[in-house]
Amino acid sequence: MNNRNLLYALALTCLLLVFGAWMLTFFHYGAAVRQSPPAQVQNSLHTGPAAEPQFNPPRPQDAPEAIRDAVMLGYNILTDTAQYAPGHAGNELTCATCHLEAGRSKNSISLVGAAATYPRFSASHKGSIDLAQKVQDCFARNLNATPPALDSRDMQAILAYLQWISKDIPVYASIPWALPAALGGSHKADAVSGAQVYADACAACHGEAGDGSPPLWGKGAYTDGSSLHDINTFAVFTHRFMPPDAATLTPEQALDVSSYVNAQPRPVFSAQPAQGK
C-alpha cells in the first residue's frame, strides 16, 4: 500500500512539473509576442519624421479608365477655361494663367497636393472650406465668373483632376513647393518705383496699359477680391516666376511692382450664385 501511494505521489509530482513547465513556456512566449510585433506592424508604428513629398504628378491621360474622362475634362477646363467651361469664364484669364500646365508645373502656383490640404481655414469665409468651395472662389475672384455648382459636371471633373494629380501626397502633408505667404524683409512697397519696374520688366508682355497677355488690370483682369490683389501674394508670385523662365526681380522690386499693379483699376468682386449641369 505504501509503495502504491508513493508511486501515485511521484506520478502526480511529474504531471505538476510538466504542467508548470508548459505554463511558463506559454506565458513567456505570449509576452515575447506582445513585446515584439511583426515587422510590418513595427513599421506602421514608426514615429520618425515622414518622408518629404516628392513632386512627380501623374499625367492626366494615365488616370484609371473609370475616371479618365473626368480627369481629362478637368485638365482641359484648367488649360482652356473659355473653351471647355464657357459658362464659367468672365475675363481674359484662364486657370492656367497662374497654374501653368494645369497646375502640374513648379514654375507657377502648383496644384499638386492641393487635394491633400483641404478642408482648411479661409479668412474670406471666416471658417473652414473644402476643395470644391476653394475652386468656386477661384472662378469668382480670379476669373470674375459665375462658379460651377458643387454637383455640376464641370466641378466634379475639376475635383477628379485635382485629386488625381495629388494622389501620392499624404493628407495634410507639408508641401515643399507651396509658395510662402510673403517675401519677408522690412522693405515697404513703393508704387512710384513700381511703375518704373513695370515699364522696364513687365510692359513688353502685359502692355503699357496693363491690357496685354495676360492683362493685369482693366476689365479683362482679376478682381479686387482675388488672392493676387494682395500685395504680398502678388510679390511672391512675381519674384519667383516673372518674367517666365528668367525671374530676375529682387524682392524689393517685386513688392514695388505689386503695389503699382494692384493700385490700378480692375473689376470689383461680387459673389454670384453657382450654376452648372
UniProtKB/TrEMBL annotation:
Gene3D superfamilies: Cytochrome c-like domain
Residue ranges, annotated region (Disordered): 40-63
Keyword annotations: Heme, Iron, Metal-binding
Record-annotated Cytochrome c domain positions: 189-265
Record carries keyword Cytoplasm: no
Keyword DNA damage attributed: no
InterPro entries: Cyt_c-like_dom, Cyt_c-like_dom_sf, Cytochrome_c-type_DH
Record-given protein name: C-type cytochrome
Organism: Desulfovibrio desulfuricans
Species lineage: Bacteria, Pseudomonadati, Thermodesulfobacteriota, Desulfovibrionia, Desulfovibrionales
